[in-house]
């Protein structure tokens, strides 16, 4: 390894790396250093500290073992994973972990669907209600505020409903609150409650809109830049699969 009195490393070695990083991936031995040394990969936002995540590290190692076994039978596998790595900028082990763990994620969504489905059905009208309330029209605003709180209470009951219903007087208090919200006065329950809750809702809604727009633009750029590459991958994979089947039939 490098010694303190040795000559400094060439500038190009640390051009895309963090010299303060002491991990094994970014340290280059001076004995093996030469003019043809490739640039060190720049750390990305997808990199995580695996030392603090032993379970995640174990999962990544197992995924790499499975990937090596698959590559022995499917030669095109390493090429596909490499192309995905080039496009996404993620490390190979992270791509493999996402690929092999995705079935368990889908299974978890299926098992949690009785809770998630009602919640997802109410989140969109809740967000749109917050946006519509900003346009001041008295009759519509009063109805939208009532609808907003109905959604919020229904979503909360999906998670903590059993605990809330155990509380004495919860159902009675909820009924009184909604009756107060329906009172045909400007300063009813919805008016006071919304002025308390509004600062907590409007900022997250704006952040959600910004995140959605940024994500959509990134997806459009990726699709636009790699649509020809994806078509070539599909064609090459189909050709290799056809050749393998033809060879087996012989």
From TrEMBL:
Keywords: Membrane, Transmembrane, Transmembrane helix. It is a multi-pass membrane protein. Coiled coil: none annotated. Pfam families: TB2_DP1_HVA22. It comes from the Eukaryota. One of its GO terms (cellular component) is membrane. InterPro entries: TB2_DP1_HVA22 (IPR004345). It is found in: Membrane. The keyword Membrane applies. The chain crosses the membrane at residues 94-124, 144-164. Belongs to the DP1 family. This is Receptor expression-enhancing protein. It comes from Clytia hemisphaerica. The lineage of its organism: Eukaryota, Metazoa, Cnidaria, Hydrozoa, Hydroidolina.
């Amino acid at each position: 390894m490098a010694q303190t009195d040795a000559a400094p490393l060439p500038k190009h070695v640390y051009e895309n790396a963090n010299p303060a990083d002491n991990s094994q991936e970014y340290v280059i031995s001076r004995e093996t250093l030469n003019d043809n040394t490739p640039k060190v990969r720049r750390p990305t936002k997808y990199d995580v500290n695996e030392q603090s995540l032993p379970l995640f590290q174990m999962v990544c190692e197992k995924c790499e073992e499975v990937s090596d076994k698959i590559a022995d039978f499917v030669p095109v596998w390493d090429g596909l994973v490499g192309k995905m790595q080039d496009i996404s900028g993620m490390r190979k082990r992270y791509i493999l972990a996402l690929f092999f763990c995705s079935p368990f994620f889908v299974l978890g969504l299926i098992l949690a669907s009785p809770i998630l489905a009602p919640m997802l059905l109410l989140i969109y009208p809740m967000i749109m209600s917050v946006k519509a309330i900003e346009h001041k029209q008295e009759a519509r605003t009063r109805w939208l505020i009532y609808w907003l709180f109905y959604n919020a209470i229904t979503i909360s009951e999906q998670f903590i409903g059993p605990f809330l219903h155990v509380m004495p007087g919860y159902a009675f208090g909820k009924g009184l609150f909604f009756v107060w919200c329906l009172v045909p006065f400007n300063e009813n329950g919805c008016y006071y409650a919304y002025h308390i809750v509004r600062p907590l809702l409007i900022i997250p809604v704006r952040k959600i809109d910004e995140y959605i727009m940024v994500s959509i633009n990134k997806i459009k750029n990726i699709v636009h830049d790699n649509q020809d590459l994806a078509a070539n991958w599909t064609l090459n994979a189909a050709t290799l699969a056809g050749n393998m089947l033809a060879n087996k039939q012989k």
